[in-house]
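Lab notebook, bench 4. Continuing the backlog of folding jobs that were queued last week. Each job is logged with the same field layout so the records can be merged later without manual cleanup. Today's entry covers 2-C-methyl-D-erythritol 4-phosphate cytidylyltransferase, a 239-residue chain. Filled in by technician R.K.

JOB TYPE: sequence-to-structure
TARGET: 2-C-methyl-D-erythritol 4-phosphate cytidylyltransferase
LENGTH: 239
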Amino acid sequence: MSNFIHSVENNQRKYAIIVAGGSGSRMKSEIPKQFLPLNGKPILLHTVEKFLQVADIQLIVVLPKNDIYYWYEITQSNQTIQAFSNNFTIVVGGASRFQSVKNGLNQIKTDGLVAVHDGVRPLVNLEIIQKSFQVASEKGTAVTSVWVKDSVREVGLDGKSIAIDRTKLKLIQTPQTFNINLMKNAFEVDEQSFFTDCASVLEFAGKTITLIEGDYENIKITTPEDMIVAEALLRKNQG
Ligand SMILES: Nc1ccn([C@@H]2O[C@H](COP(=O)(O)OP(=O)(O)OP(=O)(O)O)[C@@H](O)[C@H]2O)c(=O)n1
Ligand SMILES: C[C@](O)(CO)[C@H](O)COP(=O)(O)O
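JOB STATUS: finished
OUTPUT FIELD FOLLOWS
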């Protein structure tokens, strides 16, 4: 593992865009879900601290305009965040995830590698982050994914459904890591309704998407029951 970290570090700059510019409408909470406490600490802080474990990384944290002051308040007394203050850029988010990623990408002025990660996936592990940088340095793209475990049916307009072969289906997670020039070129495009993640944008630009294996624990906190699962997983991982 240490060999590849060494080789990536020697060759390419590393950035991560942590997208946390959404409103969390499906969570139906009073504050945006990325600031909800998970075992006493805001979800977004768990995520950011995970990425700060990567050597020499520059973080671009994308936030809703109205919550930037709140971010400064909650990080003022956080020793890890303060120690790495030179590694941070804060950017205002856009009207969609695509626009928020684009705002983050515009801050990057060098070539290298960039990992895009949902601020609300705090259970990502360091091995996946490192693997995504390694594979993206070799292939240009690295998109985290897990195999579907449930049965799946496709529902037609007439309400009838047919079984789908799940052995061909993967669920897509983040990080999604790319060569920066490749990604910048792909994002020079009008936003499309099917851009649900960065991989769909790069694919639209004709790029081949390389999948890497993710982790079933790397959940996206979307609705209230996800908080209960995330708290339990976090407790388990902290021993
Ligand atoms: N305009 C947006 C929309 C989403 N995101 C971020 O993209 C990630 C994944 O999006 P999602 O889970 O859908 O978050 P929200 O858009 O906040 O939630 P919802 O769709 O329920 O409103 C989140 O970390 C979210 O903050 C963003 O940076 N900017
Ligand atoms: C990027 C993503 O997390 C991959 O699973 C997902 O597509 C985000 O979707 P959302 O509708 O913004 O939650």
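OBSERVATION: The longest strand covers residues 170-179.
SIGNED: R.K.
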